[in-house]
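Lecture 7 notes: from sequence to structure.
We start with the chain below.
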Amino acid sequence: MKIVRASTSDFSKLWQRLFVKSTFQHPLYQPWNIKYYEALAQESQFEDCSFVVEEQGLPLLGVRMALNESPKGHQRLSGFGLPLLYIENQAVNRTELRGAYKSLKAELDRVVETYSVDSVIYQDFLYKGKLSFIGKHLLENCAQAVPYFTQIINLSASETELFRQTRKSYKSLMNWGKKNLFLRVIDGEAVIPEDIERFRQLHFHAAGRETRPRHTWDLQYEMVFHKEAFIILGELEGELVTAALFPYSAKYCYYGVSASKRELFSQPLSHAVIWNAILYAKQQGCFFFEPGAQYYPKQGNPLPTGKELSISTFKHGFGGETQVRLNIVWERRKDSV
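Predicted structure tokens for the same chain:
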């Protein structure tokens, strides 16, 4: 049993072999997506602490995580600003992973103590309704957990069934977009920098300001170019009025960032874009499409805003089912040595 850390030459190949064996293959943890989230977290640099536990060349499990310092000087362990990602090789029996679990625990504890980590941020997917090993380990060490709700669309359903699942009022809105918008799906084979620049300009116009560094848009171009994302552009009478980016992997597609022209908010610009993204992800062989977080009026601390509730309702209308995960946060006690 051997621990292979991110600083070694073998890590990337072993991690990729492990990633393709995972149930979800969450797209936000692919290389260019990670670079994007690193760029978003501008307050400090990340130190990659990821590792894989392998035996005789077979990757058994791994953790994608990085250390950074918060503005208050706290050392945080996360997934490059996202919750850290834990993966087990689903082709290996859990009984055979016992030794790997011990190695994982020892490595995680080593990192926490070596770097005097103040907090560890993790999201447990509760695969098959069960806590993961790392989730249980954190909770046993006095971590706190709160539920996180998200909408997941199972793309194994037929196109007819997926359409049937959408909210009744959405069907005419999606048809309006199909008739009135010129929609283009742009992937790694077709993307050019001008596509991303048009998207950026639309986003600037909709927000009224530059909301994030220019460099992050360059990274999103790389995401699309390297087939870690695709974008959909929607034009009305020759003018770009709506656009969205969707990170995706071989199994999983995620609704990322979007923008629409504010003057046309009364028109159903986004409905056809998202519907086309669902169909494109299905055509690419994805099993899951995640529209995003679901909020409820009395759930969360702080409580969700009216805008968050409205966006949640909008995303729910595309069908699928609401699933629960656990956001787990371990914090070093002040009396810890």
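Points to note: The chain has two domains: 2-141, 152-324. The radius of gyration is 21 Å.
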